[in-house]
Amino acid sequence: SMTIFGVALCHLPMLLQALTNTLRQWPLLVLLFLLTLLPALPTALAFFSTFGSETAGSLAPLQLLPSFNYTVFADFMHEHGKAVWPLIRAGWWTALLSLLLSVWAKGGILYSITNGFSAGTFWQAGTRYFGQNLRLLGVTGLLVAIWLIFLLLTGVLTTLLLDEGLDDPFSERGYVIIAVLMSLVFGLVLARILCASQYASVLMYERNETTVLRAFGQSWRFVGQHRAATFGRYLLLIGIGTLLLTLYLWLELGFEASNWLLIGFLFGLQQAFIFSRIALTVWALQIASANVATFPQPLDQVFDAPIISAPTPPHTDAATPDEGRLVE
User: Fold this and answer.
1) N or C: which end of the chain has fewer CB within 10 A?
2) What is the pLDDT of residues 219-235, one digit of tens each?
3) Which residues lie closer than 8 Å to 114 by C-beta, 6 or more apart?
4) Which residues, in sequence order, are CB contacts of 203 under 8 Å at separation 6+?
5) What span, in angstroms and rounded, lies between the C-alpha atoms of 51 and 53?
6) 236: number of CA atoms within 13 Å, CB side?
7) Using one digit for the tens of pLDDT, what is the confidence trace for 202-217?
8) Separation between Cα atoms, residue 96 and residue 281, nearest integer Å
9) Is the CB of residue 97 less than 8 Å from the CB of residue 49?
């Protein structure tokens, strides 16, 4: 994987060009940011209001966060759990809604990448491809679950065999080494599955493929044939995202929420991190779309271009192929 990662660094001009194209579509990034923020805003405001009323508006509980431990959390929930737990459960539903919105938005993002951003066509494309992207999410989740179960069973069997085959039982350090190795293998294959899923969404859009399993198989072979340009760049973006998350956590730990000014700064820092994550998502789809258009694809058959039908305006010439996908 490090070799693939290193080769991907040789394609920096293409990566920078894709990043430039992503930043040029700032209205798309702002719309995606609002779609991420708005579903979480009601729950966040309700939690803030409840927290303020339960603590009588005091900021003292926030000062305990840098030295947080489970006892503090248990004591707080024992006193205020009846008011807080419903909001936490509502947060799970908010997370599910955000996931569905991200699935819906993927079709609009892909259309905006190839044809330019427009709010009307973004809505149409998101609705048009929502069903197949949702099925792709289900297939991806199923494959991840199968891989996780297989790896857990392998780890348990390996540990049992080593314990029985060795005279001295495995030490705690040995168990930790096995756990770390299993985690690395799981993470690498998980990234490979997610990378193939991303390319499957692009192939389904570009080739109007509706059979999710066939599209996933095609994308898996496509990523395998062009590992450096696909998986290598995907790992590079994961590395960038990890660095941004590390920077965010480091800055967050450096400030104590002791006054409203610092609370506002931390809120702005959090929103900046969310915006950067959205930009990384669009950047990754930009790269995937460019790779699909550039490299030969292992297709089983040729599919028609995706079409979203619309009535032809009177007294105009026929629409171009790109315009035929969506009509504003």
Assistant:
1) C
2) 999 999 988 889 988 99
3) 289, 322
4) 209, 215, 218, 219, 222, 292, 297
5) 6
6) 23
7) 999 988 878 899 999 9
8) 18
9) no
In which band, very low, low, confident or very high, does the pLDDT at 183 lie, cut at 50, 70 and 90? confident
**pLDDT, position 317:** 44
Q: Has residue 316 got a pLDDT over 50?
A: no
Residue type, 281: T
**Could you write out the three-class secondary structure of the chain?**
CHHHHHHHHCCHHHHHHHHHHHHHCHHHHHHHHHHHHHHHHHHHHHHHHHHHHHCCCCCHHHHHHHHCCHHHHHHHHHHHHHHHHHHHHHHHHHHHHHHHHHHHHHHHHHHHHHHCCCHHHHHHHHHHCHHHHHHHHHHHHHHHHHHHHHHHHHHHHHHHHHHHHCCCCCCHHHHHHHHHHHHHHHHHHHHHHHHHHHHHHHHHHHHCCCCHHHHHHHHHHHHHHCCHHHHHHHHHHHHHHHHHHHHHHHHHHCCCCCCHHHHHHHHHHHHHHHHHHHHHHHHHHHHHHHHHHHCCCCCCCCCCCCCCCCCCCCCCCCCCHHHHHCCC
Task: Give the predicted TM-score (pTM) of the model.
Answer: 0.77
35 contacts: CB under 8 Å, gap ≥ 6: 101, 105
